[in-house]
Specification:
Layout: H1 4-8, E1 13-17, H2 22-33, E2 37-42, H3 45-57, E3 61-66, H4 72-86, E4 91-94, H5 109-137, E5 140-145, H6 149-152, H7 158-178, E6 183-190, H8 205-217, H9 222-234, E7 239-242, H10 244-255, H11 257-281
Parallel strand pairs: 1-2, 1-4, 2-3, 4-5, 5-6, 6-7
Helix pairs in contact: 2-3, 2-9, 4-5, 5-7, 8-11, 10-11
Length: 282
């Protein structure tokens, strides 16, 4: 593929969380085509082994690490291990995340702790443990996977919205702080596309149905997302909003807020219809 990131960082050393499936896997495979050394971090050891083989088959080199991004001490140890194994780090992709939804008052506070731990603090941990090495080396790049939820703030997604807005905010802050050290930062804000992000969801099943329908409607694949993100990150883009639908929503909210509010109201109506239908089936 010959991504610009590969030209910028000839040592080609990347660490990816949530890399055993979905978007994380696609990042690993795309980088492997350019001969990168990839740290594959995830909880699913069997899938990690499969992705490692795929990376090797495509011309890359893989190291695997069983990692829960919430575990601060473990993450610190694994960051040290990867830097030692690979000889440094040029690209960090904070991809691990979970999706879930429910009306605010129906979503237990313990679920908030779970969501914040993975989606928000997992990203903080990655940046905190790897950025010092990038600065010491004189450069690097961090890609943080946020979501279009970070600016759309759709109903029935409060915890998810908050954590993804936090990722976006952190990314913008670090973009300016790290620029002087030649460490780039990108925040990725996609709409729904087919992944297994909802597999650990803890909210009501009716909200899972809504998310599934949104994924089914998507016309973009995880591979297309990974390729576009790597391309735009190579150009130094801080905000990466994709696909066109996400960019359209961003534009509408900014310049036609009333119209955007109407769209969110329709989402409430749609969710209520799903809730009513499920209640009638019981």
């Amino acid at each position: 593929m010959n991504y610009k990131l590969s030209q910028k960082f000839p040592e080609k050393r990347a660490f990816i969380t949530g890399a055993a499936s979905g978007l994380g896997r696609e990042f690993a495979l795309e980088l492997a085509k350019d001969g990168w050394t990839v740290g594959i971090a995830d909880l699913n050891e069997a899938n990690m082994a499969k992705v490692a083989r795929e990376v090797s088959d495509l011309g890359g080199k893989a190291f695997t690490y069983r990692l829960d991004v919430v575990d601060r001490e473990l993450y610190h140890e694994i960051a040290y291990d990867f830097i030692k194994d690979a000889g440094g780090i040029d690209l960090l992709i904070n991809n691990a995340g979970v999706g879930d939804g429910a009306a605010f008052l129906q979503y237990d506070l313990k679920h908030w702790d779970w969501m914040i731990g993975i989606n928000q603090m997992g990203v903080v941990h990655g940046c905190f443990f790897f950025a010092p090495k990038m600065i010491d080396q004189g450069g690097g790049h961090i890609i943080n996977i946020a979501s279009a939820a970070s600016f759309s703030n759709a109903p029935y997604m409060s915890a998810y919205n908050v954590t993804k807005a936090a990722v976006r905010s952190l990314s913008e802050t670090l973009y300016h702080e790290f620029k002087q050290h030649k460490v780039g930062v990108s925040a990725v804000m996609p709409t729904f596309f087919p992944t297994n992000i909802m597999q650990s969801a803890r909210g009501p099943k009716s909200n899972h149905i809504f998310a599934k329908k949104m994924m089914e409607r998507s016309k973009v694949t995880a591979n297309e997302v990974a390729s576009e993100v790597l391309t735009k990150a190579g150009k130094g883009k801080m905000e990466i909003i994709l696909p066109k639908e996400a960019r359209r929503n961003f534009f509408i909210k900014k310049f036609f807020p009333g119209l955007f509010e109407n769209q969110l109201d329709k989402m409430v109506e749609f969710q209520q219809k799903i809730d009513k239908s499920m209640a009638e089936k019981k």
